[in-house]
Predict the 3D structure of the following.
Amino acid sequence: MTRTHTPDVITTNEHGLESRTVTMKRACNGCGLDVGDVTDAELDHALVGRPLPDVRGECEHCRPLVELEAQGCTTWHVTERTVGTVDRELDRLDVFAKGYFQYVDGKLTAVGHRVGSGPERVVAYWGDWLVRHPDGSFSVHTAPAAEGSAAR
């Protein structure tokens, strides 16, 4: 499905006052980036309180995750809110994992989750996606860069 991306329309009346007409946009379920105009079906879902369909496959950033899942990979979105659940899932799989800390503004702060040990270990920072491949190895799908975000 190719979505339209309707730009905002700014008009100026005879008194010099501006008005803006916007088309509601749809955000990706995975990363929150704009994927285009919302569809009538999505609007209908939202109006009656139904969950919105997964549009990660339409997102340039998240499409690779959908493809990895189709190949049998398991993915977890690692955030401050989900890290406990991710950690329990990794414990259940008997995979070593622990918080990853760095100094932020002079204070030691949790900034992500480290998975594995030795040279094969990976670090998923908050917002990244942790990927477990069918062979048991792990990789990280990095979150899209946010404006003004700190370097890793």
Notes: Confidence is low (pLDDT under 50) at residues 147-151.
